[in-house]
Automatic annotation (TrEMBL):
<dbReference type="InterPro" id="IPR019257">
    <property type="entry name" value="MeTrfase_dom"/>
</dbReference>
<feature type="domain" description="Histidine-specific methyltransferase SAM-dependent">
    <location>
        <begin position="20"/>
        <end position="319"/>
    </location>
</feature>
<keyword id="KW-0808">Transferase</keyword>
<dbReference type="InterPro" id="IPR017804">
    <property type="entry name" value="MeTrfase_EgtD-like"/>
</dbReference>
<dbReference type="InterPro" id="IPR051128">
    <property type="entry name" value="EgtD_Methyltrsf_superfamily"/>
</dbReference>
<dbReference type="Pfam" id="PF10017">
    <property type="entry name" value="Methyltransf_33"/>
</dbReference>
<dbReference type="GO" id="GO:0032259">
    <property type="term" value="P:methylation"/>
</dbReference>
<dbReference type="InterPro" id="IPR029063">
    <property type="entry name" value="SAM-dependent_MTases_sf"/>
</dbReference>
<dbReference type="InterPro" id="IPR035094">
    <property type="entry name" value="EgtD"/>
</dbReference>
<dbReference type="GO" id="GO:0008168">
    <property type="term" value="F:methyltransferase activity"/>
</dbReference>
<keyword id="KW-0489">Methyltransferase</keyword>
<protein>
    <submittedName>
        <fullName>Methyltransferase</fullName>
    </submittedName>
</protein>
């Protein structure tokens, strides 16, 4: 529940997530079918994403971790001690400790819409950094969030690793950056991960690994729809596709119907012809110019930018 006691997940009398049903029914009714990527992350989807971060072809997690590992001194110099670190999304067990141990923060405030992930991450960090008070907040961080009173007077550092910003279209990404600015306030800093434009083959392999983990992640969305929304989608009639769309500098993930199919979701009939797709994710990639432009449009001024040695991934520090 949020501060007003309103449930963040709105279930109907049958226990169905209303927002999920609405997004799926609307998305399957469009010309180009599309379902927002946030619905990937049920329990199985979250586990599959963890597995993706370990596959050979998926470089972003390793590259970003390498930057965090190697730039501790620069973070200490440019960020300094005494800030409240506000992490957008539950902290990862590897990245967050690297940042916290580099800068000696006064508090750690993880924000997440999922109370379960949030509590697990908060307990983990509290155990590893007993001197740093932890104030978890269950909230939708795409909107401005009221931070706990205990960190009200501390300067803030927002932390948004993983290039999750890339999963949003620019319009939504800019809204999010502005809302982060509102959440964090004057005098704040933001450390944000942004994946870089590179060879098409490297990008497409990162989103279509040989072991099929990303394919399973994408296809799991259909399994989730069948389970939670009473769907009859023939999952084995779909295949995973990852394509680089140069015009928008993004990887798109699609589920391609391998043959003509018809099915029901929540009692409604749908049909797709062979080759038709459901667009399930965008993952935008950046260069120095486009990441600066995005930050400036979101009311942040870039201060410093780091990449890993192979220049696959960037971490950018910006000030309010
Ligand atoms: C969470 N997000 C940054 C991942 C990405 O790389 O866009 C999600 C992902 N989708 C397929 N593989 C990973």
């Amino acid at each position: 529940a949020d501060a007003d006691g309103i449930r963040l997940v709105d279930l109907d009398e049958d226990g169905v997530d209303r927002a999920f049903r609405a997004d799926v029914l609307k998305g399957l009714s469009q010309g180009q079918k599309a379902i927002p990527a946030r619905w990937f992350y049920d329990e199985r989807g979250s586990q599959l994403f963890e597995d993706i971060t370990q596959v050979e072809e998926y470089y972003p997690t390793r590259a970003e971790t390498a930057i965090l590992r190697s730039q501790g001194e620069a973070f200490a110099r440019l960020i300094g001690p005494g800030r409240a670190v506000v992490e957008f999304g539950s902290g990862s067990s590897v990245k967050t400790p690297l940042l916290l141990s580099a800068i000696d923060p006064a508090a750690y405030v993880p924000l997440d819409i999922s109370g379960d992930f949030l509590r697990a991450a908060a307990a983990d960090l509290a155990a590893r950094f007993p001197q740093v008070p932890v104030y978890p907040v269950e909230a939708d961080f795409t909107k401005p969030v009221a931070l706990p009173g205990a960190v009200g007077n501390l300067p803030k550092l927002g932390f948004f690793p993983g290039s999750t910003i890339g999963n949003m279209v620019p319009r939504t990404a800019v809204d999010l950056l502005r809302n982060m600015r509102a959440t964090l306030g004057d005098g704040s800093l933001l450390l944000i991960g942004m994946d870089l434009i590179k060879d098409r083959a490297v990008l497409e392999a990162a989103y279509d690994d040989a072991a099929g983990v990303t394919a399973a992640f994408n296809l799991n969305l259909l399994t989730r729809i069948n389970r939670e929304l009473g769907g009859t989608i023939p999952v084995d009639a779909f295949r995973h596709e990852a394509r680089w769309v140069d015009l928008y500098a993004r990887i798109e993930m699609h589920l391609v119907a391998a043959r003509d199919v018809s099915f029901e979701v929540a009692g409604r009939p749908f049909a797709m012809t062979a080759g038709e797709t459901i667009h399930t994710e965008n993952s935008h990639k950046f260069d120095a110019r486009s990441s600066n432009m995005m930050l400036l449009a979101g009311h942040w001024t870039p201060v410093e930018r780091w990449t890993d040695e192979a220049e696959r991934f960037s971490l950018v520090l910006a000030r309010a």
